[in-house]
Design goal:
The mean pLDDT is about 95. β1 and β2 form a beta hairpin. An 8-stranded mixed β-sheet has the order 4-3-5-6-7-8-9-10, sandwiched between helices. A 5-stranded mixed β-sheet has the order 12-11-13-15-14, sandwiched between helices. It folds into 2 domains: about 190 residues, 2-Layer Sandwich (Fructose-1,6-Bisphosphatase, Chain A, domain 1), CATH 3.30.540; about 130 residues, 3-Layer(aba) Sandwich (D-Maltodextrin-Binding Protein, domain 2), CATH 3.40.190.80. α2 runs antiparallel to α3. The chain has 8 helices and 15 strands. With about 350 residues, the chain is of the alpha+beta class. It binds 2,5-anhydro-1,6-di-O-phosphono-D-mannitol and magnesium ion.
């Protein structure tokens, strides 16, 4: 059977589902092309002199890896000239990126985490790129885009996806018509459709959380995990397995393929202190997981309903299996009600 390339898939989506404006299709192709280049850089490792840290820090005070900066530049350069975008924002930049005046502007906003799971780069574990696409407010035409234009809830996303650079390089994408996976055929340099209309399995007994943060969890999160660790002998009545790669892309991809729950909860001892970023990580992953039949909350309510207050806002993340996410949320609400 003929293989379906990303280009063909997107054109067919445009025709069949009428869900994909031509401009958005070209934008997704450009992002996918940049991810191909990033995949190439990642795989070169020490031979490409791309490993290690720089002296710089990003806006959140995290030391930048060389690849964080290289991937950020690749995404900016690939996307700035096409005429599809009004602006871009990235985890690695202090503020938004305006399209230079020499290029035409378009109607979309692109947000990305150029290299997610940076701590894994130098030890040859999977890392990835996460992206989210919003439509710029109509009022943006004829003026410079501002940070406020980006502050839209996740429900406004028109596309989201991630590339994962692991044993295979994959691109997982949604434009609101299900979730589709493409594998990079390195010999011909093309993204090829390898899984479509993905539905995440429900009822699986696997959780992903960084257990070393237990002292920072809220009582509801601690109760949920303690019960899973207790296993069949405890109130949940089933033995659970645990996996944690410290690359959200890899953990979420596993959950998409074989089920389970992913959690990076907020630190309850410090108000609003969480690790993952709403606009670059939580929203796009929530869109993908919901499209695949799963659920995504901040521990209390749906992530995609959160009205953002800042580009670099952080948020607690609980996503995956619907029943498990509902249980975490119920425990959270119960214990916060007891504390009131
Ligand atoms: P990054 O985007 O700076 O790499 O940070 C996000 C990553 C996620 O991919 C992952 O889930 C988490 O940080 C791991 O954090 P920790 O090292 O605290 O387990
Ligand atoms: Mg990240």
């Amino acid at each position: 059977m003929a293989r379906t390339s990303l280009t063909r898939f997107l054109i067919e989506q445009q025709r069949l589902a009428n869900a994909l404006p031509a401009e958005l299709r070209l934008l997704i192709e450009t992002v996918a092309r940049a991810c191909k280049t990033i995949s190439h850089s990642v795989s070169k490792g020490a031979l490409g002199e791309v490993l290690g840290s720089l002296d710089s820090e990003n806006v959140q005070g995290e030391v930048q890896k060389k690849l964080d900066v290289i991937a950020n530049e690749l995404l900016l350069e690939a996307n700035e000239w096409g005429g599809h975008l009004a602006g871009m924002a990235s985890e690695e930049m202090d503020t938004l990126y305006r399209i230079p005046n020499r290029y035409p502007k378009g109607e979309y906003l692109l947000l990305f985490d150029p290299i997610d799971g940076s701590s894994n780069i130098d030890v040859d574990l999977s890392v990835g790129t996460i992206f989210s696409v919003l439509r710029a407010p109509e009022a943006v035409s004829g003026r410079d885009v501002t940070e406020e234009d980006f502050l839209q809830s996740g429900r406004h996303q028109v596309a989201a996806g991630y590339a994962i650079y692991g044993p295979q390089s994959l691109l997982v994408l949604t434009v609101g018509t299900g979730v589709h996976e493409f594998t990079l055929d390195r010999e011909i340099g093309s993204w090829v459709l390898t899984d479509s209309n993905m539905v995440m399995p429900q009822g699986k007994c696997e959780f992903a959380i960084n257990m070393s943060n237990r002292r920072q969890w809220s009582p509801g999160i601690a109760r949920y995990i303690d019960e899973r660790v207790e296993g069949a002998a405890g109130p949940c009545g089933r033995d659970f397995n645990m996996r944690w790669t410290a690359s959200m892309v890899a953990d979420v991809h596993r959950i998409l393929k074989r089920g389970g729950i992913f959690m990076y909860p907020a630190d309850h001892r410090h108000e609003n202190k969480a690790k993952l970023r709403l606009m670059y990580e939580a929203n796009p992953m929530s869109f993908l997981i919901e499209q695949a039949g799963g659920a995504a909350t901040d521990g209390f309510g749906p992530i995609m309903d959160i009205a953002p207050t800042g580009l670099h806002q952080r948020v607690g993340v609980v996503l995956g299996d619907c029943a498990e996410v509902a249980m975490v949320t119920a425990y959270g609400l119960e214990t916060s009600a007891q504390q009131d």
